[in-house]
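Re: the request from the purification team.
They wanted to know what the chain is likely to look like in 3D before they choose a buffer screen. I agreed to run a prediction and write the result into the notebook, where they can find it.
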Amino acid sequence: MTFAPRTWVVGEVVSAATMNQEIRDQFNSFFGAWTVYTPTWTGTSTNPSIGNGTITGRYMKIGRTVICEMNLVTGSTTTYGAGQYGFSLPAQAAASGVDAEGTARLTAGATYIGQAFIISGGTSMSAAFPTAATPANAGNMTPTAPATLAAGHTMRLSIVYEAAS
């Protein structure tokens, strides 16, 4: 993961170790492995419970840019809560006044293609899917929209956003 570079002083003698830390290590962090995290799944009225399903996430942070992916697979003991869903982010989004948008895919019998989104300054992402076959409008995902969730359904979210720090 990248970090803030040091401030150099005029006339400073630079060692190989310092050069490695400030240049090589910064550059190599761009090509490092993704970091795994476990998203928290929430509902605006009642939180769902993953039960024997799985929820996984991974991300890469380069400077303040975060690339984030999340995968949810429901199980036979998953409970779906109530209200609109949210999934925690690995880093809070910047309060830039601009919302971030990405992709969402729900496989629940049929396949639904939608958008993942983060409100400016947010700490979680949500998903919206078309509310009809002719997708003129979209609605936030709930336990019953765009489909009634059941065991074995999967959802994948992917988004790129600016982190607060």
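For the purification team: The beta strands are 35-37, 41-43, 54-62, 65-73, 85-88, 100-108, 110-118, 124-130, 138-140, 154-162.
Please add any questions underneath this entry.
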